[in-house]
Structure formats: structure tokens, C-alpha cells
Amino acid sequence: MLKLLQINTTCNQGSTGRIAENIGILAQNNGWDCYMAHGPRYIQPSKLKAYCIENSINEKIHGIKSLLCDGHGLGSKSGTSKFISLLNQLKPDIIHLHNIHGYYLNYPLFFNYLKTTQTPIVWTLHDCWGFTGHCVHFESVNCTKWIQGCDNCPQSNTYPRSLTDHSKRNYHLKQESFNGIKNLTIVPVSDWLERLVKQSFLKQYPTYRIYNGIDTNMFKPQKNNSNVRLKYGISQNEKIILGVANPWSVKKGLNDFFELSRILPHSYRIVLVGLSNEQIRKLPNNIIGIERTNNTTELAEIYSAANLFLNLTYEDNFPTTNLEALSCDTPVLTYNTGGSPEAITAETGFVVDQGDLAAVINILESTKVQDKFKEGICRKYALEHFNKDDRFNDYIQLYNEILKSK
Question: For the chain, how big is the Rg over CA atoms in Å?
């Protein structure tokens, strides 16, 4: 029986955790023996054979080192060494990396091991951390230092937050650690991210773009949308503009929603899902705030009730919220940010420049939102392109192709 071992910060929680879980389940259904290695936080029960790489105490120590010394990924030596010993015993046929940042894995130690093994490695890049000296995203500050070499990081105060700046050291250490693996395939989750990889110090490796997928059986149009309007006091005459994020921040467009609420016609109501209690208390009166919900049926009802899903993000790779909205047959308007526009066609939504709220208002005030989209078009597009079983099966095909070539 072929063995698959995946590695991710979380276990069956959050977008990357659920992606890894679903890939593993699909592989199991195809006859693989599947393992999930992860960090000590954000753990949900898994159908895979789960292994925690680091304990909670050492994770906290790793976090302190990251904060004080900009040493993210440089702690957890003991846990990583034990994990490498396990890998030598397990002898997986494929090692699949997801997010390896998150205070639980020592990447120089681990990648030195990967350089000695004949096992094929697949690395899904869900963000940009793998080729920067510090940050997971840089688009919002228009930083291009990652192309030639990071230094004087403008985002040392963002995740993974640090009180010092060692981005130059980190950049060269990652460059040295991540290069030199004979059998590594990189999987960017968008064409945009793939283009960045081709400009980075990872450009020597073959890439195989695979879009994220969602559960289209869970995210589907809900017939009774009056419950949402009744629950939140929205009249039938008002059009619902929806935003969903977790967590909400300036980079996710929260301030733009505040500004939009000030200039939006009275016939529209803004609904934001995923806010903290503190953020909800500070909302303008004409924005309805909803805390994060893990109830997908409730979230699908909110998507279905919306007239338009609005994604005002300044930093994103390939947001699954766009896919969830489309799967609920709700059109999407997004900023031209990262890979976000790649899920949108002329038949399923709109793309405008970052910060161009005048263009947003122009679209809302036109008859486009009301009349342009035929019922079922967005849902059909989501089913054809973003069904999780199809997208995660792309990974099974990739595994088989790699093993066949080996």
C-alpha cells in the first residue's frame, strides 16, 4: 500500500487544514495509507493517522524566539528531530508539505533531511512565506525585495510578528535550505502565485498549479432566504452586499467597507461575517456584523441571501470565499488582488482596481447586479471548476505521475 504523509500547521481546521484532510481522505479512498503531521494548535478530529510534531510548551518557546529574534521556523529542533526519526521508520512514498510556518517545525533541519531522501516531495504554497525573508504576503505594501533579497522589512510587525528585523538573514537561510532538493514539485494555488514563484529563488523547481476546491454540496443555494432577512432585520426591498473574512483587517478591506457604508445608496445593506465582538461594537449603524460561524448551512444561507459578494481584499492568493459565494449562486465583485480575479468571469462577476470604490458604486447603481446574472450561472461555474473532489483528485493524479516518472 502506498503511503502519503502530509504536513501542515493545523489538523483539519482552517482552510489549509481542511484541504489537507480532504486530500488525505480522497487518497485513502484510492487505496493509500494516509498520515497527517501537524502543529499543537488548532486541532480537530481527523480521519487520517495524525501525528503532532511539537508540544505546546516548545511551540510557545518557538513563538518567543520568533517574536524577539525574527526566528520563525528556527525553533522546535527537538520535535523536528523526533519527527525525522519517525519518517525514517515510516518511509512514505510521497511527502506533501502545506504550511510549514506556525511555530512547530525547524525548517533548516527538516529540509536538510529532505535533501537526503529519495522520497518525492510536493509542496503546496498557500501563501508567499516560502520565498520571503519574513512575511506571508507583500502585495499590500508593494514590496519587491523578495526578488533579489530581503532587508529592512516593512512588515516585521505583521505575522510572524517580530520586534527585530533579520529578514536578510532569513531570506538567505531559506534560499540555502529550500534549494538543492532533487525531487520537489511546487504547487501554487493560483496562476498569480505561480508567476511569483518563477521570479523567486524557487524558480528552478517544476510547478503544477492546482486551484483550491470547496464542498459544493455544503455551499449550495438555499431556497428560504427570508430567514436571514428576518433574523437581521433586512427588508425585502434592500439589496444585501456581503463580505466574509477571518480575521477581518485593513488588508481584508474593512476600512473600505466603512467608507462604502458612508456613500452607499440606502437601498443596500452591508453584512460582514467573521468579525470579532470588539469589531462588531465599533461598526457603523448601517453595517450588520456577524461573528465567525463554523455552521456551513448558516453561512450558505447568508451567501444565498446576498445579492452580491464583495471581496475588497488587498492581499490574497486564491480566496475560497469567492468560490463559496459562486457555489451559492451569488455573483462576486473583487479587487484586482493576487489570484482573487482568477475565479471570476464576465458571466459571474466583476473585477475593479484596488481601492476604486467609485467603480464599486457605479456597478451597484447600474442594473448589472440586478439583471445581468441568470439564475444558476454562478453555481454552474463553481461546479465545473471548483468542486473539491475534482480539484483534490488533481493531487492524486500528480502523485501518480510523480511515482510513475520515478
Answer: 22
For cell 502585495, what's the residue? 139
Q: Which contiguous run of DSSP H or E holds residue 226?
A: helix 226-232
pLDDT one-digit tens code per residue, 353-402: 999 999 999 998 875 565 557 789 999 999 999 999 999 999 999 999 99
All cell numbers assigned to 65: 524566539
What angle is formed at CA 295 by the lines to CA 293 and CA 299, rounded to 5 degrees?
A: 75
pLDDT over 90, % of the chain: 90
In whole angstroms, give the CA distance from residue 110 to residue 122: 14
Cα 209 off chain centre by: 14
Residue 22, C-beta contacts closer than 8 angstroms, at least 6 positions apart: 213, 388, 392
pLDDT digits (tens, 9 = 90+) for 25-65: 999 999 999 999 999 999 999 999 999 999 999 999 999 99
Exposed/middle/buried for 294, CB within 10 Å: 0-12, 13-18, 19+? exposed
pLDDT band per the 50, 70, 90 thresholds, residue 406: confident
CA 43 to chain centre: 17
Per-residue b/e over 263-284, b at no fewer than 16 CB within 10 Å? ebeeebbbbbbbbeeebeeebe
